[in-house]
C-alpha cells in the first residue's frame, strides 16, 4: 500500500510542477518587446534624456567606424547637427540609416516602418545597418494594434509601404516562403527614449 501512495504522490508533485512550468508569464509591453528584440539579435540602448540619445548615437558611430549617416527625418536631423555628424539625404547600402519608426511590436520584437521613413523603397534595398530612434509611447501589443495606430494617427492620409524588420541577425535563415527574396534582416541599434 505504501508503494502506491508514494507512486501517486510523486505523480501529483510532477503534475503540479508541470502546471507551474506551463503557466503563461504576462510581461509588460516594454519587457516583452525587449525580451523578443534581444533574442533576435537587436542592440538596445535605453535613454532617459536627449543628451543620452546624442551620446549613444556618437558611441554607435565610433564603435562601428561610421563617418556619416543617411537621415531624412527633420527632427532627427537636429540631433545630427548638434553632434556634427555628416548626413546624406539619399539612401546608400553602405551608409547606416538613422531613422524613426511607426511602432514597436511587443509580442514579436519587430519594428514597424512605413513610407514616412522609407519613402517608396523596400526594406531590402536600404542599408543593412539601421539606427532607430523610438519612444516608449510607440509600444503596441501586436501588429494589428500597430496597423490600427497608423490608421488612427494618419486618418485621411494613411502612409503606404508598411513593413517591419523581423530579424536582427544575418546568420539566421528565414524559411518563410512568403518573405523569399525580400530579406528584412538588419543590423539594428535601437535608441529607446523614455517619454511617458
UniProtKB/TrEMBL annotation:
SUPFAM superfamilies: NagB/RpiA/CoA transferase-like. It comes from Tenacibaculum tangerinum. InterPro entries: NagB/RpiA_transferase-like (IPR037171). This is LUD domain-containing protein. It comes from the Bacteria. The lineage of its organism: Bacteria, Pseudomonadati, Bacteroidota, Flavobacteriia, Flavobacteriales.
Amino acid at each position: 500500500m505504501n508503494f502506491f501512495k508514494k507512486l501517486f504522490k510523486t505523480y501529483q508533485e510532477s503534475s503540479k510542477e508541470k502546471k507551474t512550468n506551463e503557466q503563461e508569464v504576462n510581461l509588460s509591453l516594454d519587457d516583452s518587446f525587449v525580451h523578443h528584440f534581444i533574442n533576435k539579435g537587436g542592440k538596445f540602448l535605453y535613454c532617459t534624456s536627449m543628451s543620452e540619445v546624442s551620446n549613444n548615437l556618437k558611441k554607435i558611430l565610433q564603435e562601428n567606424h561610421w563617418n556619416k549617416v543617411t537621415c531624412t527625418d527633420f527632427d532627427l536631423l537636429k540631433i545630427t547637427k548638434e553632434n556634427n555628424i555628416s548626413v546624406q539625404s539619399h539612401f546608400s547600402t553602405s551608409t547606416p540609416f538613422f531613422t524613426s519608426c511607426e511602432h514597436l511590436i511587443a509580442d514579436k520584437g519587430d519594428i514597424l516602418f512605413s513610407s514616412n521613413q522609407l519613402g517608396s523603397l523596400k526594406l531590402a534595398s536600404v542599408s543593412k545597418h539601421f539606427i532607430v530612434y523610438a519612444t516608449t509611447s510607440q509600444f503596441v501589443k501586436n501588429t494589428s494594434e500597430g496597423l490600427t495606430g497608423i490608421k488612427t494617427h494618419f486618418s485621411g492620409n494613411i502612409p503606404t509601404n508598411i513593413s517591419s524588420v523581423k530579424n536582427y541577425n544575418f546568420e539566421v535563415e528565414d524559411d518563410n516562403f512568403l518573405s523569399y527574396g525580400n530579406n528584412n534582416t538588419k543590423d539594428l541599434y535601437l535608441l529607446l527614449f523614455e517619454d511617458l
